[in-house]
Amino acid sequence: MSIHLLGIRHHGPGSCRNVLEYLQELKPDLILLEGPAEAETLLPCALSEQMEPPVALLAYQPDQPQNAVFYPFAEFSPEWQTICYAMRNEVPLRFFDLPLTHSMALNQKTAEKEKDETPQDEPEGQKTAQEVIAETETNIQEAEISAKEQETASETEEETTDIYKDPFDYLAEAAGYTDGECWWETTIEHRKDSADVFLAVQEAVTALREELPKQTSPRDLLREAWMRKMIRAAQKENFKRIAVVCGAWHVPALENMPKVKEDNELLKGLAKVKVECTWIPWTYDRLSFRSGYGAGIESPGWYHYLWHHPEDDGTLWISQAASLFRKKNMDISVAHVIETVRLAQVTAALRNLPAPSLAEFNEAITTVMGFGDDILLQIIKEELIISDRLGRVPDNVPKVPLLVDVEKTQKRLRVPFTAEIKELTLDLRKPNDLERSIFFHRLHLLEIDWAIPGSSDGKGTFKEKWTLYHKPEQIISIIEKAIWGNTLEEATQKYLLKQTGEIRHIPELTHLLDRVIPANLPDLVDAMTVQLDRLSAASTDIIEMMEAVPDLVSIVRYGNVRNLDFSKVGNMLHAMIARILAGGVLVCINVDEEAAADILNKLVSTDYAVSTLNDPELNTMWLEFIRQVRTSVNVHPLLSGYATRLLNDKGDISSEEVQNTLSYYSSVGNAPADMAYWFEGFLRSSGAILLLDDNLWNLVNNWVCGQDKETFMELLPILKRTFSEFTPPERRKLGEKAKASGAGGIQTQTVTVSAHNEAEAAKVIPLIRQLLGIETK
């Protein structure tokens, strides 16, 4: 009986080729492979025609899917080629790492401990597409950094700081390399002669572990004890040639076995949890994550090239880069390619390297094609060095029903998961786009952030913009939500029903209802409407009602556009406006600046919503409320000023009344702060209106010009504060208008009569409605 220890790096084309050649020569009758024993039943899927790396084994707890781990495989991963070799040659293969039933129990304990020690953060709001993508890129960068730092579990005895050091850096330093990664790639991955390479790796790592005993974490010691237990069990079965494929760091611990009793003591009393496994697609850009198999890699696209073209001298790689540059309209010739390859080869020779590595090719591209500017590396990084390759798994792998339903819907609507970021603009008048919209809205409501809504161009209600960005972790989110139903419709409805029952504030419910309506869940909408009716009947909070009005208006308008019946919501909207009319003025009286500013924001949004709906009855009720705000005693000046402007815009008060109000608030008897607040409210967002509305302009301009010098100097700081809120172009135009008026060159006139032909004007209205996306009934 012979045991052959093959120490590898988990994602390395050179290690992969060495392992495959060794296995083909050895012809083992048993292979022990580092990996989770629970996933052994999934190994035959590796030979399926539908299986295309990169893929990953996903293991998770059914009762707590968030406690999950990935074991990613690329085509150039030694583990993947080992699995394929075993399946093709019908060689027994066993995963011999610590079972996940124990390992994930340790993860759970660690997570619970960290949760107890870490203060709870406030819940986050909805994220935009840019925020989600930026956050994901940050996570990837952090993972790339930690992948190297966490190769070791503790500090070395020689270090006095808290910085972790890759143990292979010591070998690199002795051999004259910059770091352990560079040493491994040059010495192992680019090695042409694979003879005795595994023995050399074993000797090197043995020396490292003897010198750095604290570099091995307690978890790794536990894993290695289990690995030895599995090797001993295989030895008792009388296999003749056992190949053991594992991370290079574990090899010395498997070569020099301690007593059985020591390992049993270490493994005694391990906790257990239930675990399920499946295959999921993976992406090259996610191979940088550290999960399951330890280290990630920074250049999977480069490794893919090395695996498929081991004999290429770099010509093909540089040609691919040149082709990409040409697609970007850059002038790259064949001479550039030749000179770049030559420079990379010369640089490698000067550095005593057997062949150019990615670093040499990048330097050569920068020098020859970029003329010293490394901006070109940013162009090839995503498409070549990393690559946007996305794997595929067979349809018959075990999946939760919800994931099956999501994938079937993706296939039917032709929106599969892709590795790149994809922008979609949907036209809801098209049946397929409407179904896509419903599908995306349901996923978003389930907090699965694959489809992220964005702002659509134009004012038409039939347009939607979405950003699609797939991350393998989204599969975990789908599995988490599988407890709510077997289909996306069922899961979304039950998940939100629970949320609805827990909501106690009207704006929170109306905001959620506004998001639910596009998802086409009528039963859920009915239940939420009942809850909204119950809350609105019991509520006495006028501010809360004001906050809810814009969402209610949006719901009613959406129903009008989509021919949905929201008469109940419309009735509630009328009732809320009536209650605001009855008690709204009271909340505007005797309030401080902060409260007045909050109420003003709600007045602005409510007025916009009511004006947009253009319901005559609601308009009348709302106008009456604004009148009360303007005329009531002790209303905060900020609110009174805004109410005056609104009534002026709506033609409800005359210019004389506005002039009198202006004079009243600017009189000597009023405090300067009251003047400032009134002007701030009166001119709120009025830059464009002052430019276009000559009535308002003349009113303000004549009042300012009518002040004496002393009064004007007192008002000047207030005016500056008010006008500073306008945009620079608005301020510039207003200055030009004031200058022209003051010089007598341009006199603004109030247009009171506008002669036009009503019959001729009516002919263009249908066309204007069509251009604006307003449906005509």
Automatic annotation (TrEMBL):
Region Disordered, residue ranges: 110-129
Alphabetical list of InterPro entries matching this protein: DUF5682, LolB
Name of the protein in question: Uncharacterized protein
Lineage, uppermost ranks: Bacteria, Pseudomonadati, Bacteroidota, Bacteroidia, Bacteroidales
